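User: What would this chain look like folded?
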Amino acid sequence: MTEKLYYDDPYLREFTAEIIQKEKIDKRWRIQLSHTAFYPEGGGQPGDKGTLNDIPVTHVQKEEDQIYHYMDELPESSTVSGVIDWNYRFDYMQQHTGQHILSAVLKRILGASTVAVHQADDYTSIEIDLSEISTENLELIEDAANGLVCANHPVYSYLNGEIPVSLFPLRRETKRTENVRLLQIGGDSLEGSSLKDLEKASLMLSGDFDVFTGALKDLAACGGVHLCRTGEVGLIKYKGQEKVRGHLRLFWLIGNRAYRDYREKTEISDRMSEALSVPLKGIMREFDRILSSLGEEKKRNSGLLKEMAFLKAEEIRNENLEGKKSFVLHEADSAYFKKIIITLSSFRHVSLCVLNVQGEEGQWAVVSTGEEEFDFNRFRSELLPLVQGKGGGKSPLWQGKLGNCSALEEFQKQFSLPLT
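Assistant: Here's the prediction, encoded as structure tokens.
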């Protein structure tokens, strides 16, 4: 069995070990070492990244209590030097310890139990057995979690040993009964404690919750790799929520992820403050004023666009009554084009085609409000292929897209023939 160095020293970044088993599976090598600092995927935490003899380890898995390192290339020597991708490892140590802090606070303050946890590349989510939570309570949870971080409580990880795990005051029950790894936040370590000490710990966890006292804050079964003190988590920030299966799934930014998010938002707010020539607190007021102004401007522009479209439609209608069959607009706004053809379809005795050319593509529309019926089937089979056109409709308006305008002149020439 591979010795698990990551539990003895979660901060170990480099180690040397012997390859005790190797096997090629589906073009990848599966390697077992005498001991390893690589944490395998499990407990909601992804496996470590890193190298063995400078060769990338692509994946680390635990199978039947054996730890396997997967690599595309086999190291040449039986003795290997392992190097952990520390930034990656530390990120997930922050996520995992931060999640325990949040789950503890949610339980102690709101009585909400953690149902499921997911640690993604850019967020950590916690599903709780509540269907709703107020903004005030979310702020309370966030403040209490960061209070635990600032208090810099010790974090312990140990096995239950000879003490039945059922005697430990766990926040969440575990199905395992032997060799259960426990994660404790705050207080003195309960490893090897007496029954009396465990009873006292249970009273602490059921009593008043003050994040800054030195009392025990949380105890849960967990096989992940954690930080040694809560202060190393750095920062916890609420991100959002969604409802799932009648529960709430809360999204959080933890550790350096929260700092990066803060830095990005600060850069954005500073640029907005400078561009708007207002202090930070005035950005939202100025933003609301601009939105209101834009709404009014949009209404005015819509009215002008409608008026312009009507005038253009009248111009096209008059030329159509004089015998012109097809009309070409160049790079017209789609909304403007739409208003033109809708206006044309409201006129009587028009029979024409309008095209809006935008580069090699564009839009087409046929309007026919005369007494003679427009033969759209012939138009679709004989004319639309000339411009790779697609679309349809019903009397008095048919419309669609142009796929290629290179044969536009031929299309117009053919359309000048009778439409019926």
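Residues 273 and 282 are 8 Å apart (CA to CA). If you want, I can go into more detail on any region.
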